[in-house]
Amino acid sequence: MAPKKKKTPKAAPSKIHGVINGAGEVVEQPIVSTIRENFMPYAMSVILSRAIPEIDGFKPSHRKLLFTMYKMGLLKGNRTKSANIVGATMKLNPHGDAAIYDTMVRLSRGYEALLHPYVDSKGNFGKFYSRDMAWAASRYTEAKLAPICAELFNDIDKDTVDFVDNYDNTMKEPSLLPATFPSVLVNTNTGIAVGMASNICSFNLKEICETTAAIIRDPDHDVKSTLPAPDFIGGCQILYDEKALDQVYETGRGSIRLRARYAYDKSENCIDITAIPSTTTTEVIIEKIIDLVKQGKVKEIADVRDETGIDGLKITIDLKRGTNPDLLMAKLFKLTTLEDSYACNFNVLIGGVPMVLGVKALLEEWIAFRMECVKRRTYFDRTKKAERLHLLEGLAKILLDIDKAIKIIRETDEEIEVVPNLMIGFGIDKIQAEYVAEIKLRHLNREYILKRTQDIEQLKQEIAELDDILKSKARVKTIIVKELKAVAEKYGEPRRSIIIYEDNVQQFHEENAAVEDFACTFFFTKEGYFKKITPQSLRMSSTHKLKEGDEITQEIEFSNDCDLLFFTDKAQVYKAKADYFEPTKASALGEYVAAKLGMDEGESAVYMVPTKDYKGILLFGFENGKAAKVPLEAYATKTNRKKLTGAYSDKSPLTAMLWLDEDKEVLFTASSGRMLLVHTGALSLKTTRSTQGVAVMKLKKGHRLFNLALYAEGSFAKPARYRTRSLPALGALPSNEDKIDEQLSLI
Fold it and tell me: Among 42, 70, 118, 140, which one carries the catalytic annotation?
């Protein structure tokens, strides 16, 4: 037998590279370095160049659009087609016309998303509060810059900010806009980058300017004294929460609760909602209200519709007769986005670094930025005046001997020698000589030269003034304060959002919900079905439809405005408003309580208790012969809990239970047939719901407590036969005279 050949081990695949047919050479790379080299640059690009605003309050897309409109001369004059603006902006922004137009829409007056829009629009620009109201195409709409944009571009041509190349190095664009007011906090700004986001709420322009000026004058200024709360374009209400507001002001993070504004029209019996939180839309609110009505959670509404038109946002809710509008709105505030939270995240790029800053810290950064702008503008003006002064000083020397200047020019053989000869003849430099040489012949008179040289002293004074500004931070700050005051006076508007305090806010609770109250009869069956029937319906038909083998165990006349307690076979109780169940007819099967209230699997309701004030007592009888007496108020809760565990003791199976308005005689019946009359006053009241109770009836081996029934006087010929002086007791067998089945009924 030939020896087996050893298998030659296959060569391990190279960890450096390999070759795949049709794909060429494949080189392995560590996943960490691959992510770092490919994903990180993308993430940084999104953070720095797309999603996070800078200290001037703008993202690059905003800045490119507004600067393009500025260069198109749209700060003054007539509007132009939006398509023209979009096309021109593509020279700076290569992300496509749709993205550019979307940006312009959100900055426009027509879209109504900003307190102070930057684009003066004409045409259909949609609405921020509507999800479905689409804006028209750019070829149909027109736009120009809003007047407030003059404050964004003020002195931009005086080297106040740096200019950088555009994406193809054919144009220059500003890296920031030299805004004369803190636009970063005046208008809302939202952006989602990679691993971080920004969400800046808007503040009132006048209040922001006053606060910024106050911080410049006093670094320890209390911001809340001049800036009480944000201000939103929709004009919604702000629920004032001092702790939450302090957190936003100090850290730049937190949430602010917003609430819609409404008015009740008594003549039409309807509610008009005229302002909603900026975090939601009319469609979302209407859809939610309709859903609540379908689910039966809101029954006071007859109709809801969107009546938004030329006059602005309007949602109308028609009410059913007898509805309290304030209670209904409190309910809708809780169940819909008519009350919502605005999550603040003041993430701003400061010197190319994303930083989350509070209001005061952000204003301090803007002050530092604006001080730099003012200094650069001042230095620019100073340089221009110094250059002008230098030329005029050269011209003044010509004034001493104009004829000599003319003679030098006339006697110079070559043009190229004119400037050097003037420099030698008058002791001036090349720049001054060039300026003199370019003077027109008509200006070579004493009057012209005297007028020009009269400006020398004024220029010297102005330059000295500018030098003083450059040396003094206090003077720079004074200039900024004056500019802020001018902006506030020119563009300031009253607050749109009303501040309301918690003490004045009506909260919705289930117990004070607006419930239509009317008389009705409750029916509860052995199988756990429930019916709520009005007297009128009962008069028309009192024949009940029931499942085969089912029977009515409880029939109680009560009212619709009450609580229903359903006790189950799993020692639990479920609470619901009677209004939660729709009125029905006797001919209907009714609602299966276990399914309606979402009971646990295999759990069934066995007893029903209606109540308004939780007064009275509950008597529980257990198969082991014990009974427990518990006050009904033990099942009342301050919070709106739907389910209570430990409703009664589960140590022994429940035989039956009774609700009593006061202590009464109850008949205990054992499976052996023995009966015992017990006055519940002899049983001590237990405050613990799950108490095991006390022994009431002695049971012989193999027997159990079979039933509990409220005793009606006269039911027994000799009731003393069934009474006892002490408990527990065996009870007595019924005499021939007592026909229990005919004379006793379960309550």
Answer: 140
